[in-house]
Design brief:
The complex is a heterodimer of chains A (112) and B (218).
Chain A lengths: L8 H5 L8 H24 L2 H23 L7 H25 L4 H4 L2
Helix pairs in contact in A: 2-3
Chain B lengths: L17 H36 L1 H8 L4 H26 L3 H31 L17 H37 L3 H4 L2 H25 L4
The chains are: A mainly alpha (112), B mainly alpha (218).
Chain lengths: 112, 218
């Protein structure tokens, strides 16, 4: 018998991977719905910059839950983390450099 | 290095083991998802710049998007991510029948999202909020230019997202057919997981589209 067929097929495909249990999957969904409710409440109770920070803070938390648990990043080797982080790193450079222009443009008008 | 088996169902000829094939498939889909993040990232960047330049007008016109439609749609997509995660979980345990059963609500929730989106777009069309094709555009008292820009971003981004979700629904239906014909196990069991990753990314894009279009109103 060949080495690959010595083990159960599940073990061949995901060696040693102890990935999300059903309980974890449901708990993450409850967390996501809780965060959605928090978004709605924050929308009606907050204004201005605070509302913006609340909306995006909660969105980032939701993304974290989906990526770490539903997309299995928590259980993946670091090479997959690097691949997923690369796109976000590019976004940080893209937003950082673009906004450093647009956010500071009007500052020049403030110079006497 | 382990000796490659002479024949192993679902193992492509250029891989040594299923584990190696799975790692390559995971990296490949993450690379693709990275390109998707960059595609939508450009649109989010464009939106952000105009949001900074026309903050007040954007806040005023955003009050005309339908908050509860957006909220219900967010709940639908988050729940579809739950059902997709369930399908992936059962596929990994090689319980393909259960996996197929969880794909049904996933596709249904995706279609429900799209149906609600179409109703919402129709309402916006009735309210003269579509800034294309020379149609009559009513800015509802907001400055015309920024109002058109906001609604332009809204239709392009939600439209592109809907196209991605439609592709996701087609892929999920295709998976259901393959599972029904008992082809997944023989061909490539990673397929459910790979399509699941795509589905979750479409969910994440909506998670960020939701605040920029529905939560920025003054």
């Amino acid at each position: 018998m060949s080495p690959a067929s010595d083990q159960p097929r599940h073990a061949q495909i995901h060696p040693g991977a102890e990935e999300g249990s059903l309980r974890e999957i449901v708990a993450v969904w409850l967390g996501l719905i809780f965060l959605l409710c928090a978004t709605v409440i924050a929308h009606f109770l907050t204004h201005g910059m605070l509302a913006l920070l609340a909306a995006f803070g909660i969105a980032i938390a939701k993304m974290g839950l989906v990526m770490f648990y539903y997309m299995h990043l928590k259980y993946r080797p670091h090479i997959v983390w690097i691949f997923s982080a690369a796109a976000f790193l590019w976004l940080i450079i893209f937003f950082g450099l673009s906004l450093s222009d647009y956010v500071t443009r009007h500052w020049i008008l403030l110079v006497p | 290095m382990t000796e490659r088996p002479a024949y192993s169902p679902g193992l492509a000829h250029h891989f040594e083991t299923h584990a190696q094939q799975h790692r390559a498939a995971t990296l490949g889909i993450w690379l693709f998802l990275g390109s998707e993040i960059m595609l939508f990232g450009g649109m989010f960047m464009g939106y952000t710049i105009y949001r900074i330049l026309y903050a007040t007008a954007f806040e005023q016109i955003a009050a005309h998007t339908h908050f509860w439609f957006g909220t219900i749609n967010t709940a639908l997509l988050l729940t579809s991510s739950l059902t997709m995660a369930m399908a992936v979980h059962h596929a990994r345990a090689q319980n393909y029948q259960k996996s197929g059963r969880w794909l049904v609500p996933t596709a249904v929730l995706g279609v429900a999202f799209l149906a609600l989106k179409v109703v919402e777009w129709y309402l916006e069309y009735r309210e003269n909020l579509v800034p294309i094709l020379g149609w009559n555009f009513d800015a509802h008292g907001v400055a015309q230019g920024p109002a058109r820009l906001f609604m332009g971003f809204y239709f392009v981004m939600t439209g592109l997202h809907a196209i991605h979700l439609s592709i996701g629904v087609c892929l999920v239906v295709g998976l259901m057919v393959l599972l029904r014909r008992d082809k997944i196990a023989r061909e490539n069991p990673s397929k459910v997981e790979i399509i699941g990753l795509y589905w979750h990314l479409v969910d994440i894009i909506w998670i960020f589209a939701y605040p920029i279009f529905y939560l920025v109103s003054a």
